[in-house]
Design a protein that fits this description.
3% of the residues lie in helices and 63% in strands. By secondary structure, the protein is mainly β. Strand 11 (211-221) and strand 12 (228-240) form a beta hairpin. The termini are far apart.
Length: 241
């Protein structure tokens, strides 16, 4: 009875304590990597604001979780498959990994404006702490697996012989996964969840082959418009030919 009351009447919050969500940062323009070449990107991201994200649970009524982000330290690589299609892989040293495909479907006649789309799949594994109703007092711990399916739209404008580029992205993110945790009241709990959010960013890339990149991104829950996360990221891109 106590366990039923907790699950039915109390909001369960799961705090992901390790790193930022990989799906927030974009760190690429709409241009694809030229065929037969590649590039490597290293970046550091710092959250400006982090908040709880309410999710829809298939196990517990009225449940949710928040991922409290500390920072993001990431490495990524891209390789050109055709003149308008490239593939990317990325990983976060604190547990995230993912891959994506990007397709350039439009470029202006003067080759300054580009539009692209694609798909990305990201995986996250984390240790979690459990609290109730937004309380900071931890009442348990566990582990969690989460998967993100990301549908992006990229746009960028390139000037000065591609030395300077300004870019933006709009991304729909669908997340699902499983949390396994124990609390003071019950052990071996399992929570299956799913949620979705909308991500936008604006950034700048300075440099042609080896470049400095900087962006600001915001991630908002589609379940609760008051829930959002903002992140500022800087990185360095090195070309491989």
């Amino acid at each position: 009875m106590k366990n039923f009351y907790i699950k039915s009447c109390v909001l369960l919050s799961i705090a992901f304590m390790l790193s930022n969500c990989m799906s927030i940062a974009t760190l690429q323009t709409a241009k694809t990597t030229p065929k037969g070449t590649g590039l490597i990107t290293t970046s550091f991201g710092l959250p400006i604001q982090a908040a709880a994200a309410v999710v829809t649970s298939t196990v517990t009524t009225g449940s949710g979780y928040s991922r409290l982000s500390l920072f993001s330290l990431e490495a990524a690589g891209r390789v050109g498959v055709t003149n308008n299609l490239d593939l990317g892989l990325r990983f976060n040293l604190l547990g995230d990994a993912g891959g994506d495909v990007k397709y350039n479907f439009f470029q202006s006649p003067n080759k300054k404006m580009f539009l692209s789309t694609g798909i990305a799949i990201n995986y996250m594994f984390h240790f979690v702490s459990v609290n109730y109703g937004g309380s900071l007092a931890s009442l348990g711990s566990g582990v969690g697996d989460a998967y993100d399916v990301v549908l992006p739209l990229y746009a960028s404008y390139h000037v000065s012989g591609d030395i300077l580029a300004v870019y933006s992205a709009l991304k729909y993110v669908y997340r699902f996964g499983t949390l396994k945790y124990s609390t003071l009241f019950a052990s071996d709990n399992t929570l299956n969840f799913s949620t979705s959010c909308l991500n936008t960013c604006i950034g700048m890339k300075l440099g042609r082959k080896n470049a400095f990149i900087m962006e600001f991104a915001t991630n908002a829950s589609l379940h609760n418009l008051n829930v959002s996360q903002n992140m500022f990221t800087v990185g360095f891109v090195a070309a491989l030919e």
